[in-house]
Amino acid sequence: MQARNIFSAALVVLGASCTTATTTTVTPNPPAAVAAFNGNNQTSGVNAVLVTPLSVRVTDAAGASISGVQVTWTVTAGGGSVAPTTSTTDSTGRAATVFTLGSAVGTQTARASVANLTSTVTFSATAISNAPVSAITLLASIPTPTGATYAHDSYARDGLVFGFMWNSGVRIYDVGNGMSGGSPSNPVLVGSLITNLNGVSSPDVHNGWWFHNPVTGQNKYLFIGQEGPGSVGSSSSGDIHIVDVSNMATPVEVGFIHVAGAGVHNFWMDEANQVLYAAYYNAGVVKIDVSGTLVGDMSSRVVAQVKPGGTGNTYIWGVMLANGTLYATDMLSGFWALDPVTLATRGGGNNVPERYGSDQWIAGQYAYSGSWGTRVTRGNAIKIWSLGVNGAPTLADSLIIANITTVSDVAVSPDGKMLIATAEGGTGQGLYVYNRTNPAKPVLVASYFTPQGEHTGEVAVINGRTYVFASRDPGAPQLDIFDITGLVP
Q1: CATH superfamily ID and name for 33-132
Q2: How do residues 224-278 score in pLDDT, each as one tens digit?
Q3: Which of 302, 359, 372, 482 is the most exposed place for a label (fewest CB within 10 A)?
Q4: Are 409 and 422 in contact (CB under 8 A)?
Q5: Which helix (H) or strand (E) holds 468?
Q6: pTM listed for this prediction
Q7: Do the bridges between strand 285-289 and strand 356-363 make them parallel or antiparallel, or are there none, so unpaired?
Q8: Percent of the chain with pLDDT over 70
Q9: Is 402's pLDDT higher than 80?
Q10: 47 vs 334, which has greater pLDDT?
């Protein structure tokens, strides 16, 4: 989130005769609020230094950041310490301290206060008896811009994370790339863009893929999915928007892809062959040639399309290419294996009649698919699939997450060791991490509960550490950045 800065300045006002001048000093507005910025709800061992410093942001009555304000830090429970005990806000209105936990197992707290403000900020941490080998650490949360309705999805690559924030467009952050000095615990905004409406009432920026073209060597295009209004099983709307990100600071929309009578949801790329596979809800799976220069209306680049479940029984949520097979999850007709060239069915389908399907991930000879909302029963299951001849899926098992209604997203870490799932609805909503030592029976090793739930999750390795970029889209939209390195076996 960008913050406005207020500086002291000298304002010279010339008199009417131009012979005299008066100098007036403009000073910053007084602090009106202090709010937590980063470092809350961490878990670590007793007497350990928390990974993420505690930080607050101080603003004036108009919500603008104020620099030069002294913040006092105090430990209020647990016997730990903070250093420094006072810090001063920088040009972004932020001040920070390092929290070292005390020897007491359980909740420990520290407080931030500002002179002349009655409100304070309390940070909580959980101290455990051993090192946090099974802890998920929330490093940072990126709020959406004012007026944004969702932080719907993210895409992480090369130390950058693209946050897809619905009516506020795509926002690009340096989280370890080096171009703007950002890190996972201190993401720095690089650039942003709100894509065109294309006949929909809102930009509805849903998801994206930064295309690394191995033929041209360019990393020029970002494909963005627009998820407009629709009705499960019958209708959808929204295009694929093509954005030139040659300069990340000033992305430019250069083209689009439209499929008549349908809207796009998630997609996947075969970069080696310059092909984009898109889930187009009621229009099924669509294969698109994205080679060469992409400018203007590129709808003619659609080279194949299939409705695996047939008309009225097709509403594709997501696609993924793996092991020479294209996989698709359908909200209505289950989990499919398709030929990536012709899109002909290789196996699966009509195999999850009790739940609406959501997203999927394939790793080795196993696949995992989520479930959504309520059909015959709640979408609280992760389906585990064994992949046979030609990649055809056979249901092997299910993981049930208690006290939720939706497993919206699943993903496997790049090293194949961890499975993550994002959960929404109910008291169990949040992030779940499983060990894949036995890929047929992943074992839950940690969970992190968030009051709004987590809608999507992207796993990335940056500078040797493993992170999850998760999006909360209802209620309090933001992009959460979690460190799960301590969970990796």
Answers
A1: Immunoglobulins (2.60.40.10)
A2: 999 999 999 999 999 999 999 999 999 999 999 999 999 999 999 999 999 999 9
A3: 302
A4: yes
A5: strand 465-472
A6: 0.75
A7: unpaired
A8: 93
A9: yes
A10: 334
Pairing verdict, β 106-114 and 121-128: antiparallel
Q: Could you tell me where the beta strands, DSSP code E, fall in 46-168? A: 54-59, 70-77, 81-83, 86-88, 94-100, 106-114, 121-128, 137-143, 153-157, 160-164
Q: What letter does residue 485 receive in the DSSP assignment?
A: G
The tens digit of pLDDT for each residue in 190-221 reads 999 999 999 999 999 999 999 999 999 999 99
Helix (H, G, I), strand (E, B) or coil at 272: helix
- What would the mean pLDDT of 377-391 be, rounded to a whole number? 95
Q: Where in the chain is the domain with CATH 2.130.10.10?
A: 139-487
Fold (CATH) for 139-487: Methylamine Dehydrogenase; Chain H (2.130.10)
Q: How many CA atoms lie within 13 A of 167 on its CB side?
A: 10
- Provide CATH 2.60.40.10 ranges for the chain: 33-132
Q: How many other C-beta atoms lie within 10 A of the C-beta of residue 455?
A: 22
Q: How far apart are CA 448 and CA 454, in angstroms?
A: 10
DSSP classification of residue 281: B
The C-alpha atoms of residue 36 and residue 19 are separated, in whole angstroms, by: 50
Q: How far apart are CA 346 and CA 158, in angstroms?
A: 34
- Two tokens at 364? 């080795």
- Select from 39, 185, 181 the least CA-distant residue to 98: 39
CA distance 262 to 238: 7
Q: What angle do CA 294, 300, 303 make, to 5 degrees?
A: 105
- Is the preceding omega at residue 84 within 30 degrees of 0, hence cis? yes
Going by C-alpha positions, the residue among 285, 289, 311 that lies closest to residue 302 is 289
For 28, residues 6+ apart whose C-beta sits below 8 A from its C-beta are 6, 7, 8, 60, 66, 67, 68
| Pairing of the two strands 325-330 and 221-226 | unpaired
